[in-house]
Amino acid sequence: MEENTASGLREQQLRRKRIRKIKSTIVAGMAAWILVTSILTITLLVKLFHMENRLNELAQSIISVEQVVENVNEKSAPSPEGSAGTSNMPGEMQDGLENAHKEGQKQKVYLTFDDGPSENTAKILDILKEKNIKATFFVIGQEDKKSKELYQRIVSEGHTLGMHSFSHKYNVIYESLEAFSEDVAHLQSYLAEVTGVTPEIMRFPGGSRNQVSNTDMTEFIRFLNEKNITYYDWNVASGDATSQAYTPDELVENVMNDVGRYETSIVLMHDAANKSSTVEALVPMIEKLQEMGVELLAIDENTTLIQQIPADSVK
Ligand SMILES: [Zn+2]
Which residue in 26, 163, 213, 272 has a CA-CA distance of 20 to 30 Å to 8? Predict the structure, then answer.
């Protein structure tokens, strides 16, 4: 009887020991699992962070390429003297003699911003609102929530929403008419969906006289004509597209130097995260233009066409 009790006790102790062992194995296993998943998560997060940085770098370099292209284009644009005189460039800019400023004439200035929405769009919109000025934004396709709100703000605050291609990738959109038309149709329907307004004007990335397109630009202009989309180049460049880092004062000066010459000035500026000088230049630029007595307007159907390749010459 006593022996039975003793062996029962021993068995109980053994069982408890086994249970304890199983328990600690489970706990150790769980701890190991948590450790491994934590390490994996951290590693993945670090990798994600690096990839994000890399993406930002890539985006930055794409913008730089564009700046170079737009810079080249600006330099190749015929001077007003050239287009009024003996320039033999095919398709002269329509801002020659007839667009030269004549005494007593009310001058019109159209501020235009390419490449947005960006981190600076809201700041630009705030300034325009404060100064009660309407402008034109030639935007690209961005599908995040913040960008969608910015497209809506551009429209609801009375500015003109223009297209600048969805992808802004020269090698893609200028590869063929098919690629270009798909991109434009995509951007147009996307902006219509987001804002309720179908944009009807466009600025070619790099301008209509860009030197990167593999396809004859008149093919794209013909397509835009068919779709009743009007394209605009510019005749005044703030200089913010150049690699040269202009100060805000210099940007203002660049604009003021050229605006005096024309009846209609279309001013090229950029709405991009790395263009804070443009934002800083905006208040003094608007004030100087107002002192000059010019009208500051958003592009509409009455705006004089500023096109390096006149759209009506393309049949
Ligand atoms: Zn651009």
Answer: 26
Nearest CA to 208 out of 88, 94, 63 is that of 94
Measured in whole angstroms, the distance separating CA 233 from the mean position of its chain's CA atoms is 16
Span 274-303, average pLDDT: 96
Predicted local distance difference test score (pLDDT) of residue 75: 43
Q: How far is the CA of 106 from the centre of ligand 1 (A)?
A: 30
DSSP string, 216-246: -HHHHHHHHHHTT-EE---SEE-STTSSS--
Using CA atoms, how far apart are residues 193 and 90, in angstroms rounded to an integer?
38
- Alpha carbon distance 213, 234 (integer Å): 18
Q: Which domains does the chain have, with CATH numbers?
A: 68-313 (3.20.20.370)
DSSP 119: T
Give Dmax (Cα) for the chain: 128
Cα(206) to centroid of ligand 1, in Å?
Answer: 6
Q: How many angstroms is it from 68 CA to the middle of ligand 1?
A: 11
Query: What's the pLDDT at 87?
Result: 30
**Per-residue confidence (pLDDT) for residue 44, from 0 to 100:** 92
pLDDT on residue 86: 27
CA of 250 to the centre of ligand 1 (A): 21
The reported pLDDT for the residue numbered 295 is: 97
Residue 270, CA distances (Å) to 73, 81, 117, 211 in order: 15, 26, 10, 20
> Which pLDDT does position 52 carry in this prediction?
85
Amino acid letter for position 140 = I
**What pLDDT, on the 0 to 100 scale, is given for residue 139?**
98
Structure tokens at 38: 């934590």
CA of 115 to the centre of ligand 1 (A): 5
User: How far, in Å, CA of 115 to CA of 246, rounded?
Assistant: 19
